Amino acid sequence: MRKFRIVSKRKRLAKKKWDMDRTEENRQEYKELQHRVKREVSKAKQKAYDELYTRLDTREGEKDLYRLARQRDRDGKDVQQVRVIKDRDGRVLTSEESVQRRWKEYFEELMNEENEREKRVEGVNSVEQKVDKIRKDEVRKALKRMKSGKAVGPDDIPVEVWKCLGEAAVEFLANLFNRVLESEKMPEEWRRSVLVPIFKNKGDVQSCSNYRGIKLMSHTMKVWERVVEARLRKVVEICEQQYGFMPRKSTTDAIFALRILMEKYRDGQKELHCVFVDLEKAYDRVPREELWYCMRKSGVAEKYVRVVQDMYERSRTVVRCAVGQTEKFNVEVGLHQGSALSPFLFAIVMDQLSEEVRQESPWTMMFADDIVICSESREQVEENLERWRFALERRGMKVSHSKTEYMCVNEREGSGTVRLQGEEVKKVLEFKYLGSTVQSNGECGKEVKKRVQAGWNGWRNVSGVLCDRKISARIKGKVYRTVVRPAMLYGLETVSLRKRQESELEVAELKMLRFSLGVTRLDRIRNEYIRGTAHVGRLGDKVRETRLRWFGHVQRRESEYIGRRMLDMELPGRRQRGRPKRRYMDGINEDMKLVGASVEDAEDRDRWRETIRCGDP
Predict the structure, then answer these.
(1) Could you tell me the pLDDT band of residue 205, with boundaries at 50, 70 and 90?
(2) Which chain positions lie within coiled-coil regions (predicted)?
(3) Which of 233, 402, 398, 408 is nearest to 242 (CA)?
(4) What is the count of structural domains for the chain?
């Protein structure tokens, strides 16, 4: 580097000398130094790359590897640098001032507009009780749950600062949080946030409505939110129909329950009517008064209600876009996007608003604001949908008529459609539920194609690393296993695939691996060698492993668990003539026979996982 600086300085002096005296000798001297600078730059870049690739091939450099993949993916997208935007009439704005005004106008309207609702006339008794002081172990747990490497808020204090300070930070934060709890007033700095528009990867890139606003808030405030959330979870009991952000529940539970329910009705040759309800801007439209009411109705101590109210008091934000930051504006409606506490607060609201209309799982299932309503008759599901609409809209939550969809499983001729306030609800043959495509005929062919597409999308996101010739095959295989393969496996533990469908997944996987290793079919290299070089096992084997792992998890759960109830559910009716449709348990029985396991083995978790394990080469 020192040599480069010396040569670069000599080049600048030679350029000045040539500008003052345009002789051939001065020109030759400048050109020669110019070439030397280029050679030194090339050497420095090569040295830096060599050091980078050497570091990436070590355990310490693995985090840098994924950071490099994300950076190369961002560099390849133009969305990051959108400097023009359209106004509400569709005219393109080009000046920095007008673009900033438009972003401010859009988000200020979005975050301060409340849907029409009935004002509550009934009150609710507040729970006045003494609350304990914040303990150090609560702060430790909250800090442990905070992820590192996240964008900081306006105070520029990352959570890593508190983690590095150890016990000193725990003691300081415990004292700070106790002062906040006692006074019910948090620092004014925590009220500020920065709103970053994130493109949804669909629609017009110049339309503000195709961006999701994520708030960058103070990390210290997020630690405080984690402490409050942990205490609220001990007090509030959320209904069993809510699967979003609940302990021991995930999207897989809801997907599995719905798929097995559809399978049972298909085998019994009975119709099952499902309505997938969509709420308009659910998080941004929650009325604050409804939030306080629902918290009190759930038995939350008034002290915590006032603490949460203070979190939303006088909150202000700015929009950070490609052309700079907008002016500040107030946020008076909805929950904070990007907040650690918001998901649980939303669950409390949905729990109270749906108390009188929800049915037991699987007839009603919620994942945050994603709601599915099922019934044996079209008339009943239509009636239930109307009851849900009334219960939600009278409290300020609006059902989207255009995005709510209806699907009939095992449909007979002339089953009709569902109406909502006189309008016909869109009828579909397939629906993407929590990221997994379910079909009205109970098959999973469309889902396999979606998994292949998701795998290619993940592969493109890290192609900057996977297609780099200087990165070893071992590292490429690891990136593939941790980024691409999970996208292809998502939701497949809930279905039983045919051989043809497994083959479809494996063909896509081998194409990705060959692209990554720079190998074509013309090179006549066998698939086994490709997998061995990248240390990647057969995808079909991994699908079997994830399916058996999930089945073992279901078997070990209590008898009231939704997955167990669905598997044990029996419906009157006979399967149709001809070749029987493939069922989930058909695939499980084949898998267990292949690995030499039985249903009883699933009770021992460690033994079960050892039996079904299928490692990579």
Answers:
(1) confident
(2) 13-47
(3) 233
(4) 4
